[in-house]
């Protein structure tokens, strides 16, 4: 019951607040720590490997210890702090709002849409057409459903389940697990580029951590779109996607809504379709929101049933 309440707290804060300001967001503080690693090293893989292990574990230990300390005050204090942690390690409302804004701008202000896309996708948007900008917005929203929401929810549920099985306090371990996966994902987003050898260990760790959330997100999207077969259809297009995980939610969205999603020069998902028009792109974002709401519901039901 307490773990389910923590999920409810996180969902309620997501609805009420959306996204805290960057200056007071703990994930941004963690990013400043990661930034100190982002430079040239004589042995970049060794430094990157040490950082990929130590920094996420450090974040998890701080969070887990804080929730355990709150639990010594009272169970509701632990619930409140664990729910706050889960809220801070997830993002849905801000993601959907940003995607909708970019899509709306493609109707009459393409330069603004291209600029706004930078908040969603790390790609050069200067030469993208309106349809390609909408495609990028839908791709990023689909991918970030996994990275920004499902991964932390899944870690919270699985962490609590393992803790319960070992006879450990569930809430501190669950919150620590959510913080760990968010830290890994943050390191990958900052360092996980081919040009940064120091980020290679974090990128590989993120690939492993995101394996399950990406596929769960694809299933949620298929259900939200009312197209259960879209996950299987997406498999045919995934070889061209560099990431072993991001293609699953993106490809499922492309299959379920019958649109072409494309990163020029890199991959094409559903090549027989057309780039999304404004109405279809908006519908895609709505379905991603439905999938996100389902993720919260399933996480709450999961911890309630298991713990």
Automatic annotation (TrEMBL):
Pathway noted in the entry: Cofactor biosynthesis; adenosylcobalamin biosynthesis
Keyword Transmembrane helix set for record: yes
Positions of transmembrane segments: 45-69, 76-96, 153-181, 288-306
Bilayer disposition of the protein: Multi-pass membrane protein
Keywords carried by this UniProt record: Cell membrane, Cobalamin biosynthesis, Membrane, Transmembrane, Transmembrane helix
GO BP field: cobalamin biosynthetic process
Entries under Pfam families matching the protein: CobD_Cbib
Chief localization: membrane
InterPro entries: Cobalamin_biosynth_CobD/CbiB
Protein's cellular compartments: Cell membrane
GO cellular component, one term: plasma membrane
MF terms in GO: ABC-type vitamin B12 transporter activity; threonine-phosphate decarboxylase activity
Chain's role: Converts cobyric acid to cobinamide by the addition of aminopropanol on the F carboxylic group.
PANTHER family recorded: COBALAMIN BIOSYNTHESIS PROTEIN CBIB
UniProt family annotation: Belongs to the CobD/CbiB family.
Name of the protein: Probable cobalamin biosynthesis protein CobD
Organism: Haloarcula rubripromontorii
Taxonomic lineage of the native organism: Archaea, Methanobacteriati, Methanobacteriota, Stenosarchaea group, Halobacteria
């Amino acid at each position: 019951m307490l773990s389910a309440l923590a999920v409810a707290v996180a969902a309620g804060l997501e609805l009420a607040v959306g996204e805290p300001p960057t200056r007071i967001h703990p994930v941004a503080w963690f990013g400043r720590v990661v930034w100190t690693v982002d430079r040239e090293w004589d042995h970049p893989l060794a430094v990157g490997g040490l950082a990929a292990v130590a920094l996420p574990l450090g974040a998890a230990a701080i969070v887990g210890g804080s929730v355990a300390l709150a639990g010594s005050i009272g169970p509701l204090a632990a619930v409140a702090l664990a729910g706050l942690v889960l809220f801070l390690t997830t993002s849905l409302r801000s993601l959907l709002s940003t995607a909708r804004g970019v899509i709306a701008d493609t109707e009459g202000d393409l330069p603004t849409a291209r600029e706004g896309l930078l908040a969603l996708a790390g790609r050069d948007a200067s030469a993208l057409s309106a349809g390609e900008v909408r495609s990028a917005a839908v791709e990023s929203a689909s991918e970030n459903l996994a990275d920004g929401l499902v991964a932390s929810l899944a870690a919270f549920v699985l962490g609590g389940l393992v803790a319960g099985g070992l006879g450990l306090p569930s809430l501190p371990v669950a919150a620590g697990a959510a913080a760990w996966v968010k830290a890994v994902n943050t390191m990958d987003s900052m360092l996980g580029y081919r040009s940064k050898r120091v980020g290679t260990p974090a990128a590989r760790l993120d690939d492993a951590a995101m394996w399950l959330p990406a596929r769960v997100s694809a299933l949620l999207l298929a259900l939200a779109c009312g197209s259960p077969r879209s996950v299987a259809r997406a498999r045919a297009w995934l070889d061209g996607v560099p990431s072993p995980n991001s293609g699953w939610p993106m490809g499922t969205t492309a299959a379920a809504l019958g649109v072409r999603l494309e990163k020029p020069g890199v991959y094409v998902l559903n090549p027989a379709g057309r780039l999304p028009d404004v109405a279809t792109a908006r519908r895609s974002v709505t379905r991603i929101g439905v999938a996100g709401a389902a993720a919260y519901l399933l996480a709450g039901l999961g911890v309630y049933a298991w713990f």
